[in-house]
Amino acid sequence: MITLYGHEMSGNSYKVRLLLELLQLDYDWAAVDLMQGEHKSPEYLALNPFGQVPLLIDGDMKLADAQAILVYLARQYGGEQWLPMDAVALAQVVRWLSITAGEVRQGPENARLYHLFGATSINIDRAQQKADQILTQLDKHLLGRTWLEFQRHTIADIAVFPYVALAPDGQVDLAPYSQVLTWIDRVKHLPGFISMAGL
Ligand SMILES: N[C@@H](CCC(=O)N[C@@H](CS)C(=O)NCC(=O)O)C(=O)O
């Protein structure tokens, strides 16, 4: 049995839920109350010493980090469609997982943390600038493409989608990025798609 520990407003938790749903897998959802600090409780830290969601347990396997979990689920239950193993193709997908944890986090994800959750330690001007940069690049990349790579959806799309689509929560306007908007709509029409607040 699969159990996903997460928070309903966490885009990182959501991207794992999204893939679980798209793969039509059964799983239990274990809500972790981030607002009450449950993720820093001794019980939760025993599961994930990083004190973060998401965390996935599948039988004896315990794995933290949204991108790592997407890789696991894709290979364990999804196969070539979601994560190809050819050296070049694999690297192309992993590039987007890296961009998600880098540029997307520094940009739209941090802007959302600032505006929606009051994370005032974030430099909002820098987050806005980073958001504009990555959205501009993404828009250019998507021109003439249906999905991020290979003209089919992979975990690259699932990893990048949440914090890009949630950018308006961080007062980042998506209107100038027409290719990005079209791609967001395409992801929302995948069979089995589930939404979250803000999408
Ligand atoms: N690298 C991790 C980051 C996870 C992460 O930042 N989770 C947030 C919620 S979206 C969290 O648990 N924040 C609480 C904290 O870091 O104390 C991933 O991609 O899953």
UniProtKB/TrEMBL annotation:
InterPro entries: Glutathione-S-Trfase_C-like, Glutathione-S-Trfase_C_sf, Glutathione_S-Trfase, Glutathione_S-Trfase_N, Thioredoxin-like_sf. Pfam families: GST_N. The keyword Iron-sulfur does not apply. Keywords: Transferase. Residues 86-199 form the GST C-terminal domain. Residues 1-81 form the GST N-terminal domain. GO terms for molecular function: glutathione transferase activity. It comes from the Bacteria. Its EC number is 2.5.1.18. It is an enzyme of class 2 (transferase). Belongs to the GST superfamily. This is Glutathione S-transferase. It comes from Halomicronema hongdechloris C2206.
